[in-house]
Amino acid sequence: MHTASQAIIAFLEKNGWLNDLADIISDLREYSQKNAQKVTVSSPTELNNEEKQEIMNKLKNKYGTAGQNIDFVVDKTILGGLTIKMGDNIIDLSVNTILERIS
Prior knowledge:
Largest sheet: 4 strands, mixed
Radius of gyration: 20 Å
Helix content: 40-55%
Structural class: alpha+beta
Number of helices: 4
Shape: elongated
Mean pLDDT: 87
Strand content: 15-25%
Number of domains: 2
Order of helices and strands: HHEHEEEH
């Protein structure tokens, strides 16, 4: 069992809330779904399913991002590469930015 889970269970038990665990888990799932971070991946052309899956796997492995919250959009202003927006953060892997940096 994960150490965080053990600590939470101990906390619930200490405060007499262990019998409320099913309701707490339900509330946490609802909270998680409402507050899941939306991710938008922009590319200059439509990505195929294999490319989308590769991106989803990399985001999940690196950031723990769930695939159900990833939108893929076409942005014709991008010359090549990708931009990834996660909440307030942007990972800019576009050719546009690379060209700006070397000029």
